[in-house]
Write a structure and sequence with these properties.
5-stranded mixed sheet; 11 strands; alpha/beta; 300 residues; 4-stranded parallel sheet
């Protein structure tokens, strides 16, 4: 590639010539040495792909080149005093050489700005959620506190991984259920999952992941998953207004309504209002059943 650099013997022009030569270009350095200095490019004269031409851009010159970098400044005081009319004309003509299509660069800059803003929002969201989880986590011992908090943070991390895989477009509800339960049991042997395909928006995915974690943890400690015979069925359906997610446990120990709400239930009751959702518990003798309802407009 043949590249013409006007004003190439100046400070900036000489560095540009070096860079172009390093990239394998054939460089033609054009300068009148009024403001540029031969010493700036003298070390380049040994390169076969470098040509030094003394010429004033106020005068026509014809060259066969592929690119032009117009760094010459014909409006310098020396030129203007010498020939003000030609100086102005050459300035206008020289502007043609400086027209560069920067559409793609601007698109890239806009895309990077949007990504940065999105990342900033996501990081703040994750940190806010982590702080809230820490405040809501309670336990009788430090060890229990650590285990409970780590489990909740892992559920949050699982949701983040699924969202990152989709470039934050959303997370599959079925994948959220499978990933959360898989951390505790073999899903294929003891869990039935059914429902239509549904992608949850990032905020909805995080909340649903935490709810699933609390239900799974409770089932592991006190419910169906505390016995080898226990089974869990997770079903959901979607209408124009709500998502209804049904969690049902069978084959575990007999259950009864607790005298007071546990820490896990408190967390669910605290996080669901963020999606205008609600949960209803059915304390059946054969196992816990509950239904989570979330408005459709908060899912996407």
């Amino acid at each position: 590639m043949r590249v013409l650099v006007t004003g190439g013997a100046g400070f900036i022009g000489s560095h540009l010539c070096e860079r172009l030569l390093a990239r394998g270009a054939h460089v033609i350095c054009l300068d009148n040495f009024f403001t540029g200095r031969r010493e700036n490019v003298e070390h380049l004269l040994d390169f076969q792909e470098f040509e030094l031409v003394r010429h004033d851009v106020t005068e026509p010159i014809f060259m066969d080149v592929d690119q032009i970098y117009n760094l010459a400044c014909p409006a310098s005081p020396i030129h203007y005093q010498y020939n003000p009319v030609k100086t102005v004309k050459s300035n206008v003509m020289g502007a043609i050489n400086m027209l560069v299509d920067i559409t793609e660069r601007k698109r890239a800059e806009q895309h990077m700005w949007l990504l940065t803003r999105e990342l900033e929002h996501r990081v703040k969201n994750i940190l806010t959620t982590a702080i809230a989880l820490t405040r809501l986590t309670k336990a009788d011992t430090t060890k229990d506190f650590a285990q409970t908090l780590i489990g909740r943070l892992q559920a949050l991390a699982c949701a983040q991984s699924l969202l990152a895989a989709s470039r934050w477009h959303g997370a599959s509800l079925q994948r959220l259920i499978e990933e959360e339960l898989a951390a505790f049991i073999n899903v294929e042997d003891r869990v039935v999952i059914s429902g239509p395909s549904l992608e949850l928006a990032p905020d909805a995915a995080q909340t649903v992941a935490l709810i699933l974690h609390e239900l799974t943890t409770n089932a592991t400690k006190y419910g169906a998953l505390s016995k080898q015979t226990g089974r869990i069925t997770v079903e959901w359906n979607l209408n124009r207004e709500h998502l209804s997610l049904r969690w049902r446990e069978t084959g575990g120990p007999a259950v009864k309504r607790p005298a007071e709400m546990g820490f896990g239930s408190q967390l669910i009751e605290t996080t669901l209002p963020a999606l205008n959702g609600e949960i209803q518990y059915d304390w059946n003798t054969e196992g816990l059943a509950c239904t989570v309802r979330i408005p459709v407009d908060r899912l996407r």
